[in-house]
Design a protein that fits this description.
Blueprint (H helix, E strand, L loop, with lengths): L32 H8 L7 H17 L4 H5 L28 H10 L3 H4 L2 H18 L11 H26 L5 H22 L3
Helix pairs in contact: 1-6, 2-6, 4-8, 6-7, 7-8
Length: 205
């Protein structure tokens, strides 16, 4: 059986508080990637209740296929051009936006957002959509630490919703034709903070 949870995400960003990385084929995309992308298409069109309902069906399907939260979170990893696809990456063309990984790009933008970033606003908004979609799935896949009590499960679900809401807000800011670096950075910081809170409570030891 695969190791369920391996700590990997830096700077306290562990998105959705998972603190996980896929431990399977390093040269393969996550088996959750097609479902995550499909659900991301619905972000902004459906509210949290409707989106998380679809996320529940995806979570159930993934678990039936013996996939875990690790596989869902893998989509945040870097897309390695020379070593196969690991994460979804940022943008349609591998390497066109650097760093080419959702987690890495969010960390990067939490420190500094440039006018160059805004030239890729459409792709970055899609990145935020993916983050929101992951939250809608992850809310139904609490890790072992979050399953300790009903209160922990409730907290996990609340953190997931915060992640979704912050991701949706970031996507809206990025799709505003008048978006400014400072406004984008503030929205990214809000997303990072939502993840850090969950990470602080539920990162596996």
């Amino acid at each position: 059986m695969r190791t369920k949870y391996a700590l990997v995400l830096g700077l306290g960003l562990t998105l959705a508080g998972a603190g996980v990385v896929y431990c399977g084929d390093e040269d393969a995309p996550s088996p959750a990637e097609p479902d995550v992308k499909k659900l991301a298409d619905q972000v902004g069109k459906k509210d949290w209740a409707a989106l998380s309902k679809e996320g529940a069906a995806i979570a159930k399907k993934l678990e039936a296929e013996k996939n875990e939260l690790t596989q869902v979170m893998q989509v945040f990893r870097k897309r390695m051009k020379d070593n196969g696809v690991q994460g979804i990456g940022v943008g349609d063309k591998p390497g066109s936006i650097k760093p080419d990984g959702i987690e890495a790009k969010i960390i990067n933008m939490s420190l500094r957002v440039t006018q160059g970033d805004l030239k890729h606003a459409r792709d970055l908004a899609r990145m935020a959509d993916v983050s929101a979609a992951v939250a809608a799935i992850a809310t139904h896949m609490p890790n072992d630490k979050a399953k300790k009590s009903k209160d922990d499960i409730k907290n996990w679900q609340e953190y997931s919703k915060e992640m979704h809401d912050a991701s949706v807000d970031l996507a809206k800011v990025l799709r505003d034709k008048n978006a400014k670096p400072a406004g984008v950075k503030a929205a990214v910081k809000k997303l990072q903070d939502s993840c850090t809170k969950c990470h602080s409570d539920y990162r596996p030891q």
